[in-house]
Structures are given as C-alpha cells and as structure tokens.
Amino acid sequence: MGVLVRCCAARAVAPCSWRGKYFSSGNEPAENNRVTPMLRHLVYKIKSTGPITVAEYMKEVLTNPAKGYYMHRDMLGEKGDFITSPEISQIFGELLGIWFISEWMAAGKNAAFQLVELGPGRGTLMGDILRVFSQLGSVLKNCDISIHLVEVSQSLSDLQASTLTETKIPLEQNAKSLVYMKGVTKSGLPISWYRDLQDVPKGYSFFLAHEFFDVLPVHKFQKTPQGWREVLIDIDPQVSDKLRFVLAPCVTPAEALLQHDETRDHVEVCPDAGVIIQELSERIALTGGAALIADYGHDGTKTDTFRGFCGHRLHDVLIAPGTADLTADVDFSYLRRMAQGKVASLGPIEQQTFLKNMGIDVRLKVLLDKSAEPLMRQQLLQGYDMLMNPQKMGERFNFFALLPHQRLHGRSHHINTCQSKPSASPVAGFSELAWQ
Ligand code: SAH
C-alpha cells in the first residue's frame, strides 16, 4: 500500500449529497411539474395500453435509448444529481483494487482473469483499481488481465473511455456488435464494452457492481384486505399530464415474485437483479472468481424505498420523468436467495466495517504523510469522513460478495464432513486483510 502514488485530481466532497440517503417521497415545487418528452411518451403509452408497472416506468425513464435519464448525460459529481464513493475519494477504489488482488491470490493466482464492472459511471472506480494493479505490477506480472465494462449509456461509455484509455490509441467502435467498443487502457490492458452481462465472454472473472443494482427496475406491491396488489402508474384524471400511483384491481403476473411467508405490508422486488445474480452465480460456480457488490440496501426488512434524485435533492419520482435519477434500496436477502446455493455469499456488511478491514486508516495516513498541501489534506479527511461516518455513508452502504463454495470451505463443498478440510484463508474486507 505504501508504494501507491497519490492521485493528483482533487475530488469534490462538501456540497454534494449521495443517493443512499432515504426520505419518503417529497412534494416538489410547482415549477418542477413540467411536461418533459419522457412524460409525453409515458402519457401516450398509458393512454393506449393502460397503467404500467413501476418496473416498466423505471426502465423507460432511466434507460429508454432515446430519452432515458442515463443515456445522454453525466449525472455524477458536483454539477450532476448525486455523488458516489469513488467520486469522493481515491482511497475507495484503491482498497477495492487490493480486494481483487487479495482474492486472486487466495484462489491460487490463476494465470489470467477478466475484471468485469457493471455500470461503471465515469470510469473513476476502474481507474483507481487499475492504478493499484499497475503499482502492484510485480505481484500481477505474469497474469493476463483484461477489462470488460457493461454499460447501456453511450455517453457514459465515452466518458469511461476518456478516463481509462489513451486518446492516441483509437478505439474500435461498432454499435451493432455485442462488443460495441474496444481499446487498450492507459496501462496497456485490453478493454471492451458491452450492453449486457450475457455478452461478456465466459471465463475466470472477478465482477464488480458499485451503485448498479439500485437503478434496476423494481416491482412494488401493497398488502390489501383482498390480498397482495401491485402498485401501478396511471394518469391522474384530475390534472392533465400528471401521473399518479394506483393499485392494480386484480392480481398481476409479477405477484409470483413475492415470498409466501412475506410479513411486510409493502414490498419491492427487482427481478432483473435476480437474473443478474443467477448469471454471476453460474459463472462463478463454473469457472471460479468472485463478485463484489456494493450498494445501499437492507436485508429484506425495508418497505417503500423508491425515490428520485435531482441536483443533489430528493425528487418526486413521478414529476418531470427523465430529468431525475430513480433508485430503490437493494434487498440483499433477495440477492442471496437468487444465488440459489450455487455459490457462497458473504455480507451484507456495512461500508465502514469493510473499508476498515481493508486498511483504510493505514492508507489515509500514508496519503496524509505524503501530502503537504493543506487543501489536499482537508479533502482526504473530508472524503474519509464521508465514506466512514455512520451518519453519512458508513452504515447505509453495504458490501456483499459471491464466491465459489470451495473458496470458503476448502477445496470442495462435497467433502464428507468426517474428512479434514483444507483450511481456507479469510476473505478480506469481511475480515481483516491479511497478505499471504
Ligand atoms: N458505479 C458508478 C456509477 C453508478 S450510476 C459509481 O459508483 O460511480 C449507475 C451506472 O449504471 C451508470 O453507469 C449507468 O449508465 C449504468 N446502468 C444503468 N442501468 C444499466 C443497465 N440496465 N445495464 C448496464 N448499465 C446500466
């Protein structure tokens, strides 16, 4: 850790808010109640085919190719709508880089691996991870590493390319191909872009998803005297061009997603997250590797968490759709269930615990000792506080991992319990980092 160079770019901290904050849906000032192209599109859709599910609404508003919120803008950082941990402090990505190296070592230093990131935003997190890989080049020197980014937004993938690749080496682009862009990173690793995880080549991989699962569409359900009913979005009959929530008059197909023994009276379920977790689990069970998932969320306890963010403020989800981010807390108990026992899961554990276990205090001290500039020192300390303070991101954000069974229990999970099992080393972050 001590050998890592300090990143020069200062990162914003103070005036921004993060999406993990949870308030109930607020009422917006009237001037925000404008008719956006997305609202016009949705009103037309609902008029022709009837009320839509919250999942359909989220999907259209966020990732519709023509008008979706994520498709044509940079929403991160001070001037955007929200800020994320990698944008707050370089230390975050550096510690995650260490996590992947530590897992690669613990699993036997495979001759090659793919590092796959889902929803890479500006590419900042991957940039910090790759800097660690370069600095620890002597450890990784004989390993063949390739980078794979899953991103639906062309404008964000352009931003990722400018963060991660050299402008003097041109990118290959082919919008019709499953690999819609490819090139070489600043440190010389091959890098490719895909719209879907399914398109990433199968092979020994480490997967990363930071603040990705929370933007996937959720279905919402309400318990009523007649049983569970799905929450839908309809046009408000009192006000033109205004949307409102309604309850489905009868059972909808998505109700099959609910657990029979559900005790809450309001539930959000994210089937897309289930599909992705199943795909990750199958791949990890087959070829090895691991997945690290970090997000705000709960372990199957919360109810109504669907909310919007615009300009670092909470935003009514039904107002001016397409101008604000939409998000819902990740249900880690659902992710664990969707792994279907094919792999082992660890967590969720709080971000403050994970980063502490990864050695954030030592890393902060090294950077503080190296930096003479008061402004840089102040930013490092503010960044640390934002990531670790339980009132800020320290408690609300969680880490969750999927690993092959044999990584946790020795060579094979089929081993007869009478036999002595080979001891597996602890998984960094979920317990203290220990280099072997
Ligand atoms: N991981 C980044 C960005 C989080 S924002 C960070 O922590 O800073 C969510 C990211 O997921 C964006 O890059 C967005 O374009 C991408 N995204 C949203 N929906 C997606 C989908 N269905 N498939 C792939 N990427 C998606």
Feature tags:
binds S-adenosyl-L-homocysteine; alpha/beta; transferase; 436 residues; ten-stranded mixed sheet; disordered N terminus; globular; 13 helices; single chain; 18 strands
Taken from the alpha-carbon principal axes, the silhouette is globular
Q: Point out poorly predicted stretches.
A: 1-9, 22-31, 412-419
Strand coverage percent:
15-25%
CA-based gyration radius: 22 Å
SS elements, strand count: 18
Largest sheet: 10 strands, mixed
Helical content, roughly? 25-40%
Structural class: alpha/beta
Spatial separation of the terminal alpha carbons: 15 Å
Small molecules bound = S-adenosyl-L-homocysteine
Annotation field: number of helices = 13
Structural overview:
This protein is α/β, with parallel strands linked by helices and 436 residues long. Helix content is 31%, strand content 22%. It is built from 13 helices and 18 strands. It has helices spanning 37-49, 54-63, 85-88, 90-106, 124-135, 137-140, 154-164, 271-287, 332-338, 351-357, 360-370, 374-388, 405-409, and strands spanning 52-53, 112-118, 144-150, 172-173, 179-184, 190-194, 205-210, 219-224, 227-235, 243-247, 266-269, 289-298, 307-310, 313-315, 325-327, 330-331, 344-350, 397-403. The strands form 3 sheets. Strands 2, 3, 4, 5, 6, 7, 12, 16, 17 and 18 form a 10-stranded mixed sheet that branches. Helix 4 (90-106) packs across helix 5. It is globular and about 65 Å long. The model is unreliable at 1-9, 22-31 and 412-419 (pLDDT under 50). The structure holds S-adenosyl-L-homocysteine (SAH). The site of S-adenosyl-L-homocysteine (SAH) has 19 residues, from helix 3.
